[in-house]
Design brief:
The chain has one helix at residues 11-29; strands at 34-39, 42-47, 56-58, 63-68, 74-80, 83-84, 91-94, 103-104, 109-114, 122-127. It is mainly beta and 128 residues long. It has one domain: Immunoglobulin-like (Sandwich), CATH 2.60.40.420. Strands 3, 5, 6, 7, 9 and 10 form a 6-stranded mixed sheet that branches. A 4-stranded mixed sheet has the order 1-2-4-8, with no helix packed on it. The radius of gyration is 20 Å and the shape is globular. It contains 1 helix and 10 strands; from the N terminus they run αββββββββββ.
């Protein structure tokens, strides 16, 4: 007994369905930490698995909010290796399940982000 094959008129629909399945699988396998633009000059970065996720680029004057999806407190600090830079642009403690206050960055440049509690956490915010 042979396996049935889709008729030619159903092949485009099958291709779309397979593409959607692939996108869903890739999304499920991606890093648990993520960042996403929320529109209106605001970006949300999700802290998860002791990670800020990928570096982000925003426009001057846009805001960034960090959502802590971990079950413990983090800091969102302008610095590296758990140490704040002199006169940090931001330094906030973010409780488990909470959001940071919006961080508005008006000056173009790069801003290193670290956690003073978990010193290996790092990301970069580039402001254009």
């Amino acid at each position: 007994m042979s396996t049935p094959h889709p008729t030619p008129r159903f092949r485009p629909l099958l291709a779309v369905a397979l593409t959607l399945v692939a996108v869903v699988i890739l999304a499920a396998c991606s890093s648990s930490a993520s960042s996403s633009a929320t529109g209106g000059g605001s970006t949300t970065v999700t802290i998860s698995g002791r990670s800020f996720g990928s570096d982000i680029t925003i426009s001057a004057g846009d805001s960034v909010v960090f959502h802590n999806a971990d079950g413990f407190t983090h800091t969102v600090t302008n610095g590296t290796n758990g140490v704040a830079v002199e006169n940090p642009a931001f330094d906030q403690q973010v409780a488990a399940g909470a959001d940071s206050e919006p961080i508005v960055l008006d000056t173009p440049g790069t801003y290193d982000v670290t956690c003073k509690i978990h010193t290996t956490m790092h990301m970069v915010i580039t402001v254009e």
